[in-house]
Amino acid sequence: MRPRMTLALAAAALLAGGVAVAPTAYARLVGDDVVTGNGAADRVAVPQATVTGPATLAAGPVSVDFDGEFFSWALLDRTTGGISGAANMTLTSSTESMIKVWFAADYLRGLGDQEPPEEMRQNVVTAIRDSNDDAANVLYKAAGGPATIDRMISTCGLTDTRPGTVPGYLGWWSFTQMSPRDAVRLGDCVAGGRAAGPNWTGFVLDEMSKVRGSVEEQQKRFGGGRWGIIDGLPPSITDRTRVSIKNGWTPLQYDSNWHVNCLAVTDKWSLAVMMRYPTEQGLTYGAKVCASVATQLVTAQPGATPAASPAGKL
Q1: Using an 8 Å Cβ cutoff, are 225 and 130 in contact?
Q2: Is residue 297 within 8 Å of 290, Cβ to Cβ?
């Protein structure tokens, strides 16, 4: 969701999992992660590294120069099922458009081996590739409305997720509260076949790999969503494996924050980055933070040779 969803609501403190997270409090929550904030929207510290040969993502420390209300991330190793990430990865933020991939998958799974009408097939394509709101609304209704959120929680084994709770907007799917820990479980649920079922999983993952459009390409009810984690991955990953992504992003007036989420999944891992920060910093800021986290988690697969270069900034 993008600027057309800016809502003139009364100012209220936003709770993350029941805990108000201020920047100074966040610095005490992240454990091994290093988070600082200096108000400079264009400064995101990234230890640059390259890998010769096959690469993957693996658990490790993350250092982000972040200026905002909430930042967290999680990484799921799809070979072991282990989840690592920030110490606050169980806290929640609104999903925004990230959740659209579930509506597409849930609708398609319900069809079994039947083909969707061409109009509905196009709704799936544009909801994922272009983050089209109208298409997502159609899929949400076709999948049962609020029932599809409950089904996502049960099907994917989500433990922190709950329906949206913004005053006056209860039930809006974009306000569904999800943690990074649950976001990577959602990615694994889609990639593992539980979300879309055996007949449609490959189709959904392929559409996610075809997400298109830059940060600058934003329209009233759809927008470019190919940025973030995908930009932080080296060719040693993107040239060798399909990377399926779905981001979510909206500047909201009720808390004067961008709500930005990045989700990416491959056959080896699922990574999610979620944040809230002042709207004046722009969408590019969040995109850079997502890319930074991904870059710092890149590591060589067994037999590959890492070659580190000096630290830099995105």
Answers
A1: yes
A2: no
CA 222/CA 4 separation, integer angstroms: 9
Q: How far is CA 40 from CA 2, 17, 156, in A?
A: 23, 27, 38
- The overall pTM is greater than 0.85: no
Distance CA 148, CA 153 (A): 9
Q: Hey, what are 159's tokens?
A: 């433990």
Each residue's pLDDT tens digit, 139-194? 999 999 999 999 999 999 999 999 986 666 656 899 999 999 999 999 999 999 99
| Residue 115: both structure tokens together | 């083909």
| Nearest C-alpha neighbor of 245 from the set 210, 291, 280 | 210
| Of 12, 19, 48, residue with least CA distance to 168 | 12
In the predicted model, residues of the chain with pLDDT beneath 50 are 1-48, 308-314
